[in-house]
């Protein structure tokens, strides 16, 4: 994972509020991925696909 530099303007904000905003933004950007991964059938499909790739994709 890469690093990022965050520049905080001179406004006086509570650190808790800043961190909450950053977490909310992170979750919003990854919302679709989180929704997909929260469904058990997707996990099974991903695991099956990985197994097929490991075997050379011969099974269908």
Structure, explained:
By secondary structure, this protein is mainly α. The protein has a domain at 15-54. Helix content is 62%, strand content 0%. The chain has helices at residues 15-29, 31-37, 40-54. The model has no long low-confidence stretch (mean pLDDT 83).
Which key phrases capture this entry?
60 residues, mainly alpha, 3 helices, 62% helix, elongated
Number of helices: 3
Structural class: mainly alpha
Q: How big is the Rg?
A: 19 Å
Strand content: under 5%
Q: Low-confidence parts lasting 5 or more residues at pLDDT below 50?
A: none
What is the rounded distance between the termini?
34 Å
Sheet with the most strands, sense and barrel status? none
In N-to-C order, the SSE pattern is: HHH
Helical content, roughly? 55-70%
Q: Please, what is the average pLDDT? A: 83
Shape annotation: elongated
Number of strands: 0
Summarize the structure.
The chain is an all-alpha fold and 60 residues long. 62% of the residues lie in helices and 0% in strands.
Q: How does the SSE layout of this entry go?
A:
Layout: H1 15-29, H2 31-37, H3 40-54
């Amino acid at each position: 994972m890469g690093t990022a530099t965050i520049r905080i303007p001179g406004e006086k904000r509570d650190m808790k509020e800043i961190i909450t905003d950053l977490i909310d933004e992170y979750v919003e950007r990854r919302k679709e991925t989180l929704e997909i991964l929260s469904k058990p059938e997707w996990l099974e499909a991903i695991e099956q696909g990985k197994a097929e790739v490991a075997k050379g994709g011969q099974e269908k």
